[in-house]
Design brief:
The chain is α/β, with parallel strands linked by helices. The chain contains twelve helices and 20 strands. A hairpin with a 2-residue loop joins β18 and β19. The model has no long low-confidence stretch (mean pLDDT about 95). Bound molecules: alpha-D-glucopyranose and calcium ion. Calcium ion (CA) binds next to loops.
Amino acid sequence: MDKRIPKWLNDAVFYEIYPQSFYDTNKDGIGDINGIIEKLDYICGVGFNALWINPWYDSPFNDAGYDVRDYKKIAPRYGTNADAERLFKEAHKRGMHVLIDLVPGHTSIEHEWFKKSCLPERNEFSDRYIWSNSIWQEITDAGSLKGISARDGAVALNFFSSQPALNYGYYNRTQDWQLPPDHPSCLATREAMKDVMRFWLDMGCDGFRVDMAASLIKQDPERKGVMELWKDVFYNFLDKEYPEAALVSEWGNPSQSIGCGFQMDFLLQFGNGAYNSLFKVENPFFSKKGKGDITLFTDIYNKLYRETCEKGLICLISGNHDVFRLSRKFDEHELKVCFAFLLSMPGAPYIYYGDEIGMKYTENMISFEGGYDRTGARTPFQWDDSFNAGFSPNEKTYLPVNPCYKEINAKKQQNNPDSLLNTVKELLQLRKKYSALKAFSKYQCIYAEKDKYPYIYKRSDGGQEIAVIINPSERAEICQNVELSGEVIYSVGKPASFNGGNVTAYPQSATLILLK
Ligand code: GLC
Ligand code: CA
């Protein structure tokens, strides 16, 4: 393990919380920080030991909080800064770590910096955002907003129209208003973001999930400029002042992001397609139809793993607030096989709240707070079968609870040894017990053939070796010339049998074997 890696990451299993939909304690229908604190024991009880909390800053909520109005203030609907501090303390008491969402690429149009940047008179914030010289000069590389203030110019966007891009500079410059990344105004933006990081790290958070981390430098096709920027942030700032901080990037290209200092990056729904081939394409590998192709994943993953395994972690996700939930395509048994994979691979897994109980994606929801087709993956957590699934006593909740809550809820699954929740729990116990399954323990691909099942890999750490045999298909699958001998320590479905170089993986099964 690289010395830049905080030790706790080797054991970390993250739980992503969308705060507005997790648990409401003051009965206003919206989840809050006290709700997260109250449910820490549930989260720990399942076996998660780290959190990623989606943006909780003051915001007009045009993009569910990814449009920050004040980086240093908790949105009143979630509570106060004191509540946030208490959450960090309560989490630490339980041996948990907390990452919060950092949104460095853009702010809300309601941020004070932006209001000042809109003034026609030059001031400290004039170049905090990217402005062309005249209202008639569009910013074509990013999309722009025009005619919103007395300042003459169009201003660059980063995502929605209410999210203007912060100015960290241009790598390739073709216009005089495009500043170089080392221009004092761009460096001032960088300093402002470091100041935000200091604020929360000093309060007790353990690091950040960095939103759109690759977007900061413009006209940077090979990402050279943005990699330079992050190297500076890591090596000249975080490693010196906060060596224990852990950052995970929303980047989707671990060779680049880990290469410039991030300890973790996600394998995402965008980018190289590896995630989609497992879970999202027409015939995903994890469907029981058994028509997927594991090499669409392993060709990419194995290479990325070799490039990054010494320096950082490729993090697999069950889902997140931007994608349809896994259960849209998969039934409960298919989900169990997915989790056996997600929780036995290297890297720190990130499980999206509710995926551990197979919460459903709500179809055809009207967009709310900039959710669009993501809205259906953001509904309230289903705690039990009481009113509003036990999320809130308020008639009106942040989003309507999915009607399936009487059938699918945490309480019911806690009492059922065969539930998805208990499978997740057992898998997390194994991950804790066997060092071969930890984040940095080695991975070796043993069997992954085009259009074939199963997928077999080996995890190892020093003397301990575990083979994992994954067969999502409803057919029994036999593969030859794979010598395994050892003891089955866990299985979803009927455990695989193995002798004389033949491995039989039974329908819809996942088997973990402690090798001798
Ligand atoms: C990221 C977030 C997404 C948000 C966007 C703009 O992709 O995950 O939810 O809308 O960035 O900040
Ligand atoms: Ca509330």
